[in-house]
Design goal:
The protein is mainly alpha-helical. Helices cover 45% and strands 7% of the residues. The chain has a single domain, classed as Intergrase catalytic core (hpI Integrase, Chain A). Helix 1 (8-16) crosses helix 5 and helix 2 crosses helix 6 (138-151).
């Protein structure tokens, strides 16, 4: 079975295939590890760009708990430009009706079309209705964030807080990356 992980090279190709809002959405999902529902409901008032934080409203998160999500420093200028570029909505990513957020299905479509354009989308199976299941999804970008964070030495409890997991066991699943990822991590390991 094809692993449901993407490489940094595939991620770069995905980002490079997109522009503007769509590119920012991809970078924000992967850079913060936010859930798609948190991203679509994100309001300008949830952003503290000076402190590089997103404060999703607790009632709008899966766990219904408040948390601070750290924004990677390189994303802040792009996010500031995006937010300043329009005043007509309270949402960071408004939908077609500017008073409503972008839908999760639209974000999934952006991710899928970007991955196809970048040549990194691939099916790994079929659902119960026979429709293809694809590797690159918004949730894959959450996984990408988690694996990259661990690769960079982010402590597991900090990753747990960033992802909004209530149980450390949920976060520790990312320690069990596929054998190809582990093999690559061990390149250059000597004793």
């Amino acid at each position: 079975m094809v692993p449901k992980l993407i490489t940094p090279t595939e991620f770069k190709a995905l980002v490079d295939s997109l522009e503007g809002r769509d590119r920012l959405i991809i970078k924000l999902l992967a850079g913060t590890g936010m859930r798609i529902s948190e991203l679509t409901r994100l309001k300008k008032s949830d952003l503290d760009l000076d402190d590089r934080l997103i404060r999703p409203q607790a009632h709008k998160t899966k766990t219904r708990k408040y948390r601070d999500v750290v924004i990677p420093a390189p994303l802040v200028p792009e996010l500031k430009r995006w937010v300043k570029s329009f005043d007509h909505s309270d949402y960071v990513f408004p939908g077609q009706g500017i008073s409503a957020p972008m839908t999760s299905s639209r974000v999934r479509q952006i991710v899928h079309e970007g991955a196809v354009e970048a040549g990194v989308q691939r099916a790994y199976g079929r659902d119960k209705d026979g429709k293809p299941l694809y590797v690159v999804t918004p949730h894959t970008l959450r996984h990408f964030h988690a694996v990259r964070a661990l690769d960079l030495g982010i402590p597991l409890n900090d990753l747990q807080a960033q992802l909004g997991h209530t149980d450390l066991k949920t976060t520790s699943v990312y320690l069990k990356a596929d054998i190809n990822h582990r093999r690559k991590s061990y390149e250059g390991f000597e004793i």
